[in-house]
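Repro:
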Amino acid sequence: MIKQDTLENQAKSIYLGIGSNLGNRIKNIEKAKYKLFQNQINIVRSSNYYESLSWPNIKKPKFLNIVLEIETNLSELNLLNKCLMIEKQLGRKRSLKNAPRVCDIDIIDFRKKNLKKKLILPHPRMHKRNFVLIPLFELNKDWKHPVLKENIKTLILSLPNKDIRTIKQL
């Protein structure tokens, strides 16, 4: 049986995805984690690193990704602005959609909120991404999608087989 305080803490969790496919990918992600800490964002737990093919063009450099569970007093929009600022500080240049990048920080889930205004939460494509679901599963095997109401195991099993076969834990 799960204790009530455990359920309450899960409901309050915030998850970020961080990815990089340019330069020293591990160093880029570690710098992003440090900058999050410098901006009043406490990292509770971090997944392992996962390497996956670039999407939609698999000929681009492979991505390295992690998922973080964080705590912060920032609102979801203020957190988004901090993440965008950190990406820019680390050298991200916004160009073509899905272009290779030094750092990408996405808010995956913000306390189970369902928003569709300036910020869409949960992340609108996270349930189709192996590099989000598998590291998130590592952190929270009981996580449930706030909109789809599907548990994470079901979401992972609904991925195409090649998405499950081509991701590697480092």
